[in-house]
Amino acid sequence: MTDKKEWPLWEVFIRSQHGLAHRHVGSLHAPDAEMAIMNARDVYTRRNEGVSIWVVRASDIAASSPSEKGPLFEPANSKVYRHPTFYEIPEELGHM
Amino acid sequence: MYAQMVKTGVDHIQSKEEMSPEERAFQERVDADIKIEPKEWMPEAYRKTLVRQISQHAHSEIIGMQPEGNWITRAPTLERKAILLAKVQDEAGHGLYLYCAAETLGVTRDELMEQLNSGKAKYSSIFNYPTLTWADIGAIGWLVDGAAIMNQVPLQRCSYGPYSRAMIRICKEESFHQRQGYDIMMKLASGTPEQKQMAQDALNRWWWPSLMMFGPSDADSVHSAQSMRWKIKINSNDELRQKFVDQTVPQAEYLGLTVPDPDLTWNAERGHYDFGKIDWDEFYQVINGNGPCNRQRLRTRVKAYEEGRWVRDAADAYAAKKAARAKAQAA
């Protein structure tokens, strides 16, 4: 095993049908973006799972920290009035 | 299973009082079926055990290509050949999903490859048996993939997010594997007497190794108890083995084949089949490197890795050349 340099990790996003958003499906190693897309086709779309592939270097993704999950998402917790079910609409009005 | 006898490094199951506050919070999340994700805090033993289990599972998928690959050039029809190619390609894909899941726990792909190619890493005992006839391809899909599904379906619910997601992908594809195997067996079992005999011979040779796949009874194993507490193991080995026997015996009967176990009987009281004693000496011989094909499997694996080196080098050189050109254009 003399290979010292490991290929970078790419995160793979697939759009399954026209009109839907790309969705993260997994990751793979490849030397460059072009090969990453070729490999993603073979690894993640062997059964027509996609109409479009995005690959992003894993090292280029910035992520929120799991330990700060509480404070980060807390502001949304107290705002139930952002949901339609918060409001009571008289039944005789029908669907709104 | 694809991962057999995975050690957890613990000598007893900790009580809630013995746990640190972090460990307790972790266990409570697992108990509440909240998935653990890569960057979250986890006990070191959980992380290490998962690396062992997932990498062993991945190595099994990779080595598992060999017994079947043996028949690609000799498949009886072009359609069977295309199907077998697709199946073997799936196994490679399954290995890749699993390596990626293992890498989220802080090991590198190179380390995992090195462990496999040096013979340090284990893989499932089942892949050290030879595929002597075309019927073995049927038996592998039917029995080996059937046994794997027994284990993998519950693992879709395991506590570690990336492993659970890899299992979901794998299970979707695995069902094709088992059905194509049974399809081969049906064809042979309804063919000439010689073809039916081939199917019977394959069942004779693969039945017991398939039951061994689940591993020795772990009713008293502290490692299994710990893994189940962490929800990275869902059922006991004996439970899954029984389920497999109960499911498979009627399928053998449908084929008109005989399961090679004189002690196999339906136990109406238990509502399960009773079956004969498994030769665990054979199992330990195989996992300790003395199965019929251990050396050949490793040799083939290393050879493939070495002979693929020029492809990896070429891809590297091409990527470097393109990057240099892009840089020159930008300047």
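The CA atoms of residues 58 and 95 of chain B lie 4 Å apart.
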